[in-house]
Each structure stands twice: as C-alpha cells, then as structure tokens.
Amino acid sequence: MISEDQKIWVQVCKGKYYNNLGFWRSVNVAGAIPLWRQTVKRRDFFRQNVKWQLGDGQKVPVLSQPWYTNWQVAQQASRKDRQITIAQIFDADNNEWRSEEVARLLGEEAVTGVVQNVQKPGAVPGLKDKLIWDYNISGTYTVKDGYHCAVARSGGQGNEVTWKYIWHWKNIQPKVKVFIWRLLANGLPLAQNMHQRIQSISPMCPRCNQENEYPTHCFFFCQGSRLVWFGGDLGIRTDSLPLDMKEAVQHIIQGKDEEFIKTFCYTMWEIWLARNDWVFRQKTFNPTGVCRKVRAWCAQALNVEHDSVRNQSVQEMIPYEVASDGWQMIVDGSWDTSKKAGTAFLVYKDGMLHTMGLERHDADDSFLAEALALEAGINWIQAWMTDHSICNVQIFTDL
Questions:
Q1: How many domains does the chain fold into?
Q2: Which intervals hold domain Reverse transcriptase zinc-binding (predicted)?
Q3: How many Å apart are CA 64 and CA 18, to the nearest integer?
Q4: One domain, residues 188 and 67
C-alpha cells in the first residue's frame, strides 16, 4: 500500500478509509473489509521496522522520524509544521541547510547535528524518496522476513521450545499438530476472531456467554474448559495462566516430558471438538467425556495392550447420556501416581450444564479416588440442593 500506491486496490482503500489522514494515521471504520482491518491492526509493527531512504527530500516530513538521535523533536508541532519536508529546510541553490528553519522545528541543538551528519537531499541525482524495510539489506519486505522479525521481537526463544516439543513429537497425529499450530497463530474461527471479520457475529463465548471468546478463554478460562484441565490427568489449575495463548502454552509445557506434552495436545484437541459440538450440533459440553476421550487418544498412541483400552476406539468411549429434562449430577474422580486425586461435579438442568464444582484430595489408588469422589459429590450436592430449594437430583458415577 505504501510502495505500490498506484494500484487499483490501493486507490480503493485510499478513497474509502484514509479520510485525508494518510496511511499511518487512518483508523479502522465500521464495515471495513478484512484486508484493511488487518492492515491497520499490524501497522505499528511495520512502523517500527521501516525507514525513509532519502532521495530528493520531497516526500519525507522533517518530523516523521529521528534523523539525528540527539534531536528533541517538538511534541506540540502544528499541522502545518508536520507537513514540512526535508527538501523545504534545504537550500538547493546554495547547497546548504536552512539553519533558522531547522532550529525553529527541531531546536538550536539540532542544527550542528543536521549540518554535520544528515545526508543532503538530492545528493544522488534522480533518486526519489522511498520507504524501505529495515530488516534486510535490499530494503524489500517479504512475508518470510516479516515473520522472522516478529518472532525475534517477541522473544522467539520461548516459541521455539514450544515447536520443539509439539511439532516434532512422533506420537501426535498430524491433524492435531496443525490444529496446535493454527491455535498458536490465532487462526481458529473463535467468536472474537469471526467478529473482527463479520461485525454481525457476536464475539461472546457461546458456552458461557460471559466473556469474549478469545483463545485462552475458550481453552483455559471458560468454566467447562477449566473443569477439563482440573479433572483430567494433568490436574492443571488454569486460573493464573497468562492471557496470551503462546505464553500460556509455554508456561504449561516448559520443562515437561513428552508424555505430558502429548496429553496436553490431545486435551486441547478434544476441548475444541467438544466446543464445536456445542456450537454446531447443540450437544452438551461434557468435561468428563472430554477427559475420557483424551485418555483413549493417549492409550492408542502408546499402543497399550490392555484389552479394555486397546479394543475401544475414541468414538466408543462416549460420555454419560444427559437427560433432556430434570436435574442430574455427574461425579467423576481422577487419580495420578503421586496419590493426588481430583473430583469434578457437573450439575445439569434439562440437559444443559447449570453449575459445577471442583475438589482436591489424597487417595492411594484410582478405585479409592472414585469412591471419595462419590462421597464428596453427595455431600456437595446435598448442601447445594438445600441452598437452592431443589428436592430431586439424579447422581451418576462410573464407580
């Protein structure tokens, strides 16, 4: 849009969105095409990585960038002064800078710096001013250079660790790897992302309808997702995770072994599938069912020989059937080899998730963990029924 401003599509954007403000100062407007909205969104990144190549000085505003590092550029410059170009503070006839004008615009201390250090406009005959990409020698922007620059400026080492464990892990299906890649690139069709493209689509989370559905909300902070992580084999509390998805993933998997990474990836995958079933097929989001399917994926990846696991496909390991009317509670316990157990309570009303609860306790084996989960669930639902004046709730467990 900057270097090829005579192309038709650039002229269309100019006419519709510039509003006499120019490329660097124009803003997003309601109903703008996705190309323009994404351009404005990433404009600050380009602003930090481009610079003017001085030619005749006709296009380069004096106050557009720090030509000399010690200049104290006027912060309250008038609109007229902001439009003054390099060529206007240079006397081409006498081949010298207009010192009085330089001092007025930039301060007395800038005069010596300009005279001694700044290339004179027109030094190369026929050369025009050009905005160039500052990240390579040629000055030409490429998508590859832009990507590497963005990774470097965001402290890309953390993301490299993420890819080291996720992309090269052999026991994760390719479609799940691609899904994780799209997630880290914020390329999933979440409600907030869709709203940015189509204004009529609500950005609110379709499951809880309490917050915008941004990536970390969908996968970590929404109530159903929180329950999956807490009640699953990883036993993760997601309350204190960073809001940025890449940072959150890095925080979770840093220093973990391959088995942990595999379980993490399949948990993310099953949360996404369950979310889509809720949105597009009106199926209840069942955290217990999600956890069961994750265990089945991991068992298949390890080629476990136990018949009860090996002979069941992921599709066969279906969750409890939730009735379409009345109150129901599903109780499930989880246990790991450190003898830590978790209990999850899911309360449904007329087939829809109404509320949930979480508890942690110690248990010597998985059977005891399920028994303690049932006991805790009964105590929890009794108190809850009393508080809400409810007389009849069906309780389901896999004990």
A1: 4
A2: 141-229
A3: 18
A4: no
User: How does residue 220 score in pLDDT terms, banded at 50, 70 and 90?
Assistant: very high
Residue type, 299: A
Helix (H) or strand (E) holding 394: strand 394-396
Mean pLDDT computed over every residue of the chain: 76
Residues 227 and 182 in one domain: yes
Q: Which residues contact 61 (CB under 8 A, 6 or more apart)?
A: 82, 83, 84, 85, 86
Residue 268: pLDDT band (50, 70, 90) is: very high
Inside any domain, residue 198: yes
Cross-strand bridge partners of residue 328: 348, 394
Virtual CA dihedral for 66, 70, 75, 79, nearest 10 degrees? -50
CA-nearest of 350, 346, 397 to 369 is 397
Same domain for 352 and 302: no
* Residue that is last in its domain, among 319, 338, 362: 319
For 85, the 3-state DSSP assignment is strand
pLDDT in tens, 133-174: 777 767 777 777 777 677 666 554 444 545 555 667 667 888
DSSP 3-state of 373: helix
Cα–Cα nearest to 54, from 139, 136, 146, 135: 139
pLDDT band, residue 229 (cuts 50/70/90): very high
Contact criterion met (CB below 8 Å) for 89 and 101: yes
Looking at residue 277, what is its pLDDT? 92
Distances (CA, A) of 333 to 197, 292, 320, 358: 41, 11, 14, 10
Backbone angles phi, psi at 104, to 5 degrees: -65, -40
List the alpha helices (DSSP H) in the chain. 8-13, 34-41, 43-47, 79-82, 99-106, 108-117, 143-153, 157-166, 174-184, 191-197, 215-216, 223-231, 245-253, 258-281, 287-302, 307-310, 366-388
Beta bridge partners of residue 341, listed in sequence order: 335, 361
Q: How many CB atoms lie within 10 A of CB 243?
A: 12
Poorest-confidence range of 162-171, 198-207, 226-235, 264-273? 162-171
Provide the residue count of the chain: 399
pLDDT, position 215: 93
Output phi, psi for 5, to 5 deg: -75, 0
